[in-house]
Design goal:
three-stranded antiparallel beta sheet; alpha/beta; seven-stranded parallel beta sheet; Rossmann fold; binds 2-phosphoglycolic acid; 245 residues; single chain
């Protein structure tokens, strides 16, 4: 595992975007796994800047998003489909047909989820997967549990996640209670994984993850410790409770 501790959110975002840009320049048809939430916004802004000012070319890049709220249509401003267009896709030259996102309207969920995993496989698999981390250690919407699901699936959000995500809604009761998410296996199949963590609010979970040397499904992100190519990029606030640095 590679650990980078950057001064603040801006430095973390720049570091992440630089690694993305280097990978895209090395392999123009890179397959990216993308994440939503507050954390990656700065990375996406920096990628847009690199597209505009440094000719970073997304024309052959393929993307698969981690998750989507179940029941939200892509034109709903709270949906992750909407977020991706607002925060990245509308501002770079990605081919819209290369940008894949789970569909919150899917009806035959089981078949739909299988198809999503098959599409990832057919594309050659994810080269670089971007992840945020929930305060409860979730990645995507793989929430702490006795058992974790391997492939893409529909899941119930925990109260912790509903509370954390309510900041993007008018109130907690407007946060959808279900989501479609890549499974822990879909994530672990990525060739490289980059996890970002920023701010004091993430210090506790990052300490749990990095101080203990333990793997448990109760902290889904801890499974990443079993992956052979993980980068963690965090800012000093998120790293403030780490020991033995
Ligand atoms: P955040 O969410 O980036 O908004 O903190 C991360 C997550 O829940 O995975």
């Amino acid at each position: 595992m590679q650990l980078f501790i950057e001064k603040d959110y801006s430095a973390m975002s720049k570091k992440a975007a630089q690694i993305f840009a280097d990978e895209i320049r090395q392999k123009p048809n890179l397959v990216l796994g993308l994440a939503t939430g507050g954390t990656p916004v700065g990375t996406y802004q920096e990628l847009i800047r690199k597209h505009n000012e440094e000719s970073l070319d997304f024309s052959k890049v393929v993307t698969f998003n981690l998750d989507e709220y179940y029941g939200l249509t892509p034109d709903n401003s709270q949906s992750y489909n909407y977020y991706m267009f607002e925060n990245l896709f509308n501002h770079v030259n990605i081919q819209k047909e290369n940008a894949h996102m789970p569909d919150g309207r899917a009806s035959d969920i089981k078949t739909y989820c299988k198809k999503y995993d098959n599409q990832i496989e057919k594309s050659g698999g994810i080269d670089l997967q971007l992840l945020g981390i929930g305060v409860n250690g979730h990645i995507g919407f793989n929430e702490p549990a006795e058992e974790l699901v391997v492939g893409t699936h529909i899941t119930d959000l925990t109260q912790d996640t509903i509370k954390a995500n309510s900041r993007f809604f008018d109130s907690a009761d407007q946060v959808p209670t279900k989501a479609i998410t890549m499974g822990i296996g879909s994530i672990m199949k990525a060739k490289k994984i980059m996890l970002l963590a920023s701010g004091k609010g993430k210090a506790e979970i990052m300490a749990k993850l990095l101080n203990n040397n333990l793997v448990t499904t109760k902290t889904p992100a801890s499974l990443l410790m079993l992956h052979q190519n993980v980068m963690i990029i965090m800012d000093e606030e998120a790293a403030s409770k780490l020991k033995n640095l």
